[in-house]
Amino acid sequence: MNSGYPLIRPRRLRSSSKLLSLVRETVLDPSKFIMPYFVTHGKSLREPIESMPGQFRYSIDELLKEVKSVISLNIGGILLFGVPEHKDESGSESYSDNGIIQTTLKALKEEYPDLLVITDVCMCDYTSHGHCGIVDHNGRVKNDETLEYLAKISVSYAKAGSDIIAPSDMMDGRVKKIREALDDEGLADIPIMSYSSKYASAFYEPFRDAADSSPKFGNRKSYQMDYSNSDEAILETALDLDEGADIIMVKPALSYLDIIYRLKQTFKRPLAAYNVSGEYSMIKAAAKLGYLKEDAAVLEMLTSIKRAGADIIISYYSLYAAKLIG
Ligand code: PBG
After folding, report:
1. Which residue of 44, 47, 262, 266 shows the fewest CB atoms closer than 10 Å?
2. Cβ contacts of residue 246 below 8 Å, gap of 6+?
3. Which among 39, 213, 318 is the best mutation to test ligand 1's pocket, defined by most ligand atoms within 8 Å of the CB?
4. Is any atom of ligand 1 closer than 6 Å to the C-beta of 150?
5. Residue 1 pLDDT greater than 60, yes or no
6. pLDDT at 175 > cutoff 70
7. All domains of the chain, ordered by start, with CATH?
8. Whole-model pTM above 0.85?
9. Cis before 53? omega within 30
């Protein structure tokens, strides 16, 4: 440091908005946002999701209208979750050619061939028990048997037009199994975005209402990660990359900025962060009560996720933020 006379004054670069913008280190870009959508059977449906104000369950015809804004705002892509008509022990609608996701993919791709569509691969929306895999008679999820189903679902989505396969179940060995299945079917060019560090989190609660996917017994702690752990995220991510993951993910985002930072520093690979339902609904609720300003809070939240090291941000606020950024 020099002798008292302040040669360096950080405030000098904050004296106008032009200067601020010139030296800004982190800039949000809507083309790096992914907007999640819930899609369901039926016609002309836009069912409000009570726990996520401003979000809806769309029928396919309504989703086709809705994604026009995704395209016009130059948002990177969409992530689809299916709300099926039919649930059973093995979640059979998830891999049926006429399943909700397969039908939606065909309709979207016909109308908007250039729209990037990512599909979440998991069984919890489709199983009668609400767990992310096949369950034995003691109610435990059977890892290796579940892998066969995940591979089948992934191939079915990719054939129906999915651009990226995103397994969110957290079974061990799923990325390798899915990669091999895609390659065997001539789908070697379809990337895998793996939910590589997915924590067992209280912030998924509103989503489970939206997708009707709460486990009917037990919880997901035997397959999702313990939020007390950080080294484990390195291990889970290293395994997924080794098995062929193209994009890694941290989920949730806000309480896990340290994990985002650590994984980006360690792996230098494309990293997505999932700004989950609870993070969305907290701001919505506080804004409704007048406790904070929604637009400012949203931009600060998304910028913090990017500053921590996320390349891609999956957020229910994607459209809202893209409009603010302009
Ligand atoms: C499916 C899945 C969940 C979310 C994304 N994929 C729910 C869960 O794991 O319980 C949560 C997304 C959100 O909260 O926005 N396994």
Report:
1. 44
2. 191, 192, 193, 270
3. 213
4. no
5. no
6. yes
7. 26-214+225-325 (3.20.20.70)
8. yes
9. no
